[in-house]
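Limitations
The structure tokens in this dataset are predictions for the assembled complex, not deposited experimental models. Users should treat interface geometry with appropriate caution, especially where small molecules or nucleic acid strands are included. An illustrative entry is reproduced here so readers can see what is and is not provided.
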Amino acid sequence: KQEVTQIPAALSVPEGENLVLNCSFTDSAIYNLQWFRQDPGKGLTSLLLIQSSQREQTSGRLNASLDKSSGRSTLYIAASQPGDSATYLCAVRQPPSRGTYKYIFGTGTRLKVLA
Amino acid sequence: EPEVTQTPSHQVTQMGQEVILRCVPISNHLYFYWYRQILGQKVEFLVSFYNNEISEKSEIFDDQFSVERPDGSNFTLKIRSTKLEDSAMYFCASSESLWRGNTDTQYFGPGTRLTVL
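Predicted assembly:
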């Protein structure tokens, strides 16, 4: 059964720091992996989606990498800003062979960037 | 850019009452999903729906839950007799395809916060 874990659970950094959020999954057979941002009490904003054949994706100050063999993905945020404060979720879809269409979500990392 | 919309944004109901949560998926999408997030917990899959049928459901999705596409644009989640533990944020999502490269991305709506008193 696929399990998705995110470390750390919470992170507090001063503005301007580069930081790395980690996501690990127990079954390396994945179809894709997506990183989301969630503000308190709000919905899910998609940040980056990595297909299983890709190693990384970039959008602005965000870079997500994927290492399927080790069951890990990292989200790198460059030059963090107070506006980056939110909870970051990773979610995994498994391939058709697993017979499921759903995303399996991680526990999230709650990020606070201090001004 | 097209987006998934959900109404209402917040619903308060008494235990035992029926609630219907509404979603308008992206117009050319064929696959629809409901997820929920209990406060402080993971986002969990509830159900997927295609061609007027449930294609997959989780163990959470018991007989108290049902889904429907009553017309060409809406997708609804009904909870027949709400319990305190149904209090959560409910997210609707839709995708154009299931397994076809960049058209199989699930797009999520902003969520409906359900509070059961």
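Some entries come with short summary sentences. For this one: The radius of gyration of chain A is 14 Å.
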